[in-house]
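Notebook B, p. 112. Complex prediction, attempt 2.
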Amino acid sequence: MSGIPPGDDRRDPDRIDRRKHPALSGHLELLSRMSGHLAVTLNIDDTIQKALGLIVHFVKAEAGSMFLLEDNATRLNCKASVGPVNINGLVLEADEGIIGQCVTENRSRMVRNVSEDPDFDQSVDESTGFQTRSILCAPMNAQDTRIGAIELINKQGSDGLFSEPDLLMLQTLATAAALAIRNARMAEKLVAQERVNREIELAIEMQRSLLPKPRATTFPVCGINLPAHEMSGDFYDYFELEDGRICFSLGDVSGKGMDAALLMSKTASLFHCLGKSIHEPGVLLATINKELCETAFNGMFVTMVCGIFNPETGATILANAGHEPPLLHATDGSFRAFPASSPPLGILPLEAGIDGIIDESFRLDGGTLYVFTDGVTEGTLGNGRCLEVEGFRDIISAHANAPAAGRISAVIDRLRESSQQRHDDITLLAIDDNANRPHRMSADNPAKLLARLKFRAHAEELQHVREAVRTACEQSGCSPALAQDLVIAVGEAAQNIVRHAYRGVDPGEAVLEIFLENGILEFRLLDSAPPVEQGKVQPVWPEDLKPGGLGVCLIHDIMDEVEYLDTPSGNGNILRMAKFIESDKNGT
Amino acid sequence: MEHDVTVRKGTTVVALKGEIDLDNSPAARKLLLDSINDASRVLIDLSGVTYIDSSGVASLVEALQVSKKNGTGFALAAASEPTRRVLELARLDKVFTIHDTVDAGLTG
């Protein structure tokens, strides 16, 4: 310690001399303590109670209360009270009594002697037994917003009357309290908003889980749903029935936002559940309609398409309730639309005696059926125009040779060219009749199918491919040496599918078919990967020692004919490899 | 694919067995390269190989190239019929030194 006595302010000219300004020093200390208290708590009730306790203590009042405006500023509610009587919860009209005037007129009041003030309401004293002699009242405002007021009653001491400095003090403290309350309210709002955000995130996750999981690229149905905002009012779904057919659906709920999203979830769930037992699309939609009508809300409705597709035959049954017409893109390049046969769902129940809306049966014949929402056709392009159905057809036609997922991506890419904020969800479903079609036995193709093996395009499946070739060679009477060569060639071709065709893509399925016809052993390998560029399958011996190139050399060396066939739908690849085996069987 | 590594007469003998295809050729490649890096002379016994595809052949080719760079002795031995056929088809039967038997490879 130095020799300077306590209270000597020579070292700090700004320091307040407590002996000269005892009141000011005390005020600042109180403000500092109050700010400290209010800074650590964001709980409003806690804030209010602590602030009032400090104010009452410092101004040396017998009692105090804090009233906050509620119900659109029509009422004053006592949220905190200090003193002999607890009046928490006391509700006054916004302009009632001295405190009401103080708030309404936004001015402080000091009533030194209440017995002389006509505004004083005796009823509280009468009901509580407390005797009010003098009142100090200051309004609380924060940024021009009226929050309420603080009222102090009876100065402690002999006459119990407040003085002018007490009022000034209260005014200062009321402003600090008002800011603290406003901050606490904002914090509460933020916390509430955060909670809502978390719940929305969960809802988004839950809604995404209603969409079907992506399947292998060879699965005939694929779709996409891009919500414009957090939640989607569109949905699509598909699943396999026990008989191998695929039930699919796509819908669009009127309106946007959370209510549309909830109705979407309900409709999607109804489809997923009822679709497993009702195998007539028209009846299924009518049943969903009945359910939606029973719980109709706010005039909301759903446009929906539902169908059943047989991947073996391409046979399709389709029902359309008020939805944009689905389009069938046939293998000859033509398009056919399927307009709605009934109004949207959720508006009116069907007439008595009718159990389903009209559905339509047709075959895809190697083509693709597209079902989409108006978010696709009304989506904005880079040039600011809408895509329209014509634009959609153009993109699909231009990418006819790509797999279905690639065609969908092409449409989405075009719609993403626009920098404009999307207003509508984009949902698109493709039912692709690619499976098995080019290889189905027909009257003009009497070849004998020796084997058909569907395999995952994965390295560990290659041994099954080789085994199938070995067995077929044995059945067709090939010599062991030739069989060994054919195993090498087909093994390399299958390996190429695994290595190249599915590069960067989730391994899908491929198919090996082995035919025997007129002494020709024919192998066909089918995959649904992007079409192979013909130039890349020419042998480049001997420079190219890379296994891929080497494999192609081996295939060409062993096989008599190697070619890629056109796939009717333009999807995937068919590699045909043929070997003349008659001479081998004759031992020549 | 199975394998067996032994050291005989100062030569690391790597015996590959079973089918070598895309599924296990990465493991075969690692085994061959590790052997070449650890030994001064490596002999690959192919007598137990029942099938080898182009990815397996590529591993052998890469092993040959690395051994040339490293100065490690590298040869194949006792090629099974399926292995011999693939190497013939790939015109690689003259690129590799292929001994008829492992014993011949050890003395050769």
